[in-house]
Specification:
By secondary structure, the protein is mainly alpha-helical. The chain has one domain: P-loop containing nucleotide triphosphate hydrolases (Rossmann fold, 3-Layer(aba) Sandwich), CATH 3.40.50.300. The chain has 7 helices and 4 strands, in the order H-E-H-E-H-E-H-H-H-E-H. The strands form 2 sheets. Strands 1-2 form a two-stranded parallel ribbon. Strands 3-4 form a two-stranded parallel sheet. Helix 2 links the parallel strand 1 and strand 2.
């Protein structure tokens, strides 16, 4: 999603300054300072605070929930977290209940987040449920963002994110 949004001309924060985002969120501040510089913020800790962000930003905000099959997601997370040995990331513990990968805990947290997002009382056109795994691409994303459809292949899962 980061690559796709950048291709559409948006300035995207994917883990840039997320320590400050987390600290601001934990202090109850949801007009994050990073939003003065970026059009969108992706990844942790955002999913943990979607309700608070919705209250703070109201209809000014749009939310994209990217999802995939649980087993595929778990395999990806296990591989990703194996690279992060001895790293305690508070955002990870907050959402998944543990600093390190635990298949059962993470599966439970993923399903809970999915159910919470789907059942939340969103304003019309405020939430985009997006699954590249199921074939969603620029057509769906661009229509939802009211942007011209980009005539390019959608970046696939695992594509390297390059800074812009």
């Amino acid at each position: 999603m980061t690559v796709a949004l950048r291709h559409l001309g948006l300035k995207v924060s994917h883990w840039h300054d997320h320590d400050s985002v987390f600290n601001e969120a934990m202090s109850g501040q949801f007009r994050w300072s990073i939003m003065q510089e970026y059009d969108s913020v992706l990844d942790l800790p955002v999913p943990s605070f979607f309700r608070e962000l919705h209250v703070e930003w109201g209809n000014e905000a749009k939310f994209i929930f990217t999802y995939r099959k649980l087993d595929t997601w778990l395999k990806s997370q296990e591989k990703h977290m194996a690279l992060m040995v001895d790293v305690d990331i508070e955002e990870v513990k907050l959402l998944y209940g543990a600093y390190q990968f635990d298949r059962d805990l993470w599966a439970e947290a993923y399903m809970k987040l999915y159910k919470d997002v789907v059942s939340f009382n969103w304003s019309p056109n405020q939430l985009l449920m997006f699954s590249a795994e199921k074939g969603d691409g620029y057509d769906k994303l661009c229509k939802w963002l009211s942007k011209p459809v980009l005539q390019a292949p959608y970046p696939h899962i695992g594509q390297v994110i390059k800074s812009t």
